[in-house]
Specification:
The complex is a heterodimer. Chain A is mainly beta. In chain A, 0% of the residues lie in helices and 52% in strands. Chain A has no helices and eleven strands. In chain A, strands 2, 4, 5, 6, 9, 10 and 11 form a seven-stranded mixed β-sheet that branches. In chain A, 37% of the residues are buried. By secondary structure, chain B is mainly beta. In chain B, a hairpin with a 5-residue loop joins strand 6 and strand 7. Classes of the chains: A mainly beta, B mainly beta. Chains A and B meet through strand 4, strand 5, strand 9 and strand 10 of A and strand 3 and strand 4 of B.
Chain lengths: 116, 111
């Protein structure tokens, strides 16, 4: 089945630094990928839609200059958390769907970001 | 998008069937019913989805009522590893369409 891989699975960084998270579709191509964020004891919240070759679409309340998304190829999207602060500490999850009729969305295993 | 209503939590004995209900009374004709689950500190795992017919795969069965206003996910023989948060989501199956997660049902399977 379709596999979505995220890297790293966890990262600790200091306040003010930037962190890049990679999302790859391993055995299929994805023109669109989605980034979610999940705080403890809460559900997943959609942050943005990543479009290959064009600008990402951000959900209301998500700062596009803080969460930089690059979808440079059909198998890779990256999320960069710039000038991270402790309140950015969260579980970040990406997802993608095969370009096949009736294919479901598949999720990566998430990246746990801790900003100290 | 159609909203879904799920019980906050359910318990199930190991080996028994787990029947997880979901109400989606405002579902539109082009919206599918999706079920995912999330085990602690992992990404959501796809379980099954359907439009109007009942569906079955190696993980579970999905029963959708004839009026499509509700559905039930059935795990036929629950194991301890099925303990997770289960999400029922209704959404069109289109390439550029994300899934919007509600609070889901926390299923606890005990021996």
């Amino acid at each position: 089945g379709a596999v979505v891989s995220q890297h790293p699975s966890w990262v600790i960084c200091k306040s003010g630094t930037s962190v890049k998270i990679e999302c790859r579709s391993l055995d299929f191509q994805a023109t669109t990928m989605f980034w979610y964020r999940q705080f403890p004891k809460q559900s997943l919240m959609l942050m943005a839609t990543s479009n290959e070759g064009s600008k990402a679409t951000y959900e209301q309340g998500v700062e596009k200059d803080k969460f930089l998304i690059n979808h440079a190829s059909l198998t890779l999207s990256t999320l960069t958390v710039t000038s991270a602060h402790p309140e950015d500490s969260s579980f970040y999850i990406c997802s993608a769907r095969e370009q096949v009729t009736n294919s479901p969305l598949h999720f990566g295993n998430g990246t746990r970001l801790t900003v100290t | 998008d159609a909203k879904t209503t799920q019980p906050t939590s359910m318990d199930c004995a190991e080996g028994r069937a787990a029947n997880l209900p979901c109400n989606h009374s405002t579902i539109s004709g082009n919206e599918y019913v999706y079920w995912y689950r999330q085990i602690h500190s992992q990404g959501p795992q796809y379980i099954i989805h359907g439009l109007k017919n009942n569906e079955t795969n190696e993980m579970a069965s999905l029963i959708i009522t004839e009026d499509r206003k509700s559905s039930t996910l059935i795990l036929p023989h629950a194991t301890l590893r099925d303990t997770a948060v289960y999400y029922c989501i209704v959404r069109p199956n289109q390439a550029g369409t994300a899934l919007i997660f509600g609070k889901g049902t926390t299923l606890s399977v005990s021996s």
